[in-house]
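Q: How would the structure tokens look for this protein?
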Amino acid sequence: MTMATTSPVGSLANATSKSPSTNSSAARIADNFDQFLQLLTTQLKNQSPLDPMDTNQFTQQLVQFASVEQQIKTNDNLSSLLLTNKTANLNNALGFVGARVTADGTTSSLTAGSASWQINAPRVGTATITIKDASGNEVYSGQKTLSAGDQSFNWNGVKTNGQVAANGQYTIVVAAKDANGQSMTIKSEISGIVDTVDVSGDSPVLHIGSISIPTSSVKSISR
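A: Here is the predicted structure in token form.
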């Protein structure tokens, strides 16, 4: 007498057709594996000696079950590592709040009649300094004598036409020449107190007023 049973191979195929990604998926795979073994045991007991089961099929399915289980464990471990890394990044980012940072940048914030930049000249020379508003309009232009090395440039918010600029973001452009009339590349940095930190992206972004600074641009930090 032939006993009609559900194919354990087909049952396993259905169980592994969905990609597991949660703890509930792992539990579901375990339950299906138990069912698979029960069906397999039943069929082995009731198989016909003249028509034995193809052991290659259920052996392949056993390997498939083991592979899926390993994938679940790998995903769980990866999720745990990502969470640990994100927590560490968050803790590190929060350490910037309230600190003064200096970072690469050309855009500073004009607040209470003051905006400042740190600039670095490779040699002694002179520079034409232009300041533009957030729309790219030139609001100030003036001359500055440069010494070699780091130095600051402070703008009081007064435009070239004598009007007072509104608070906001302003960008500095420095065109410099050395004593021999050769053009020089001037590096600029901004400095300020970090108000908040945005950790919603792949890497933290610091905020000094309305200025956003990626942590990769930070040159120094002090309190």
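The domain at 105-192 is CATH 2.60.40.4070 (Immunoglobulin-like).

Helices lie at 8-15, 23-46, 55-94.

Upvote if useful.
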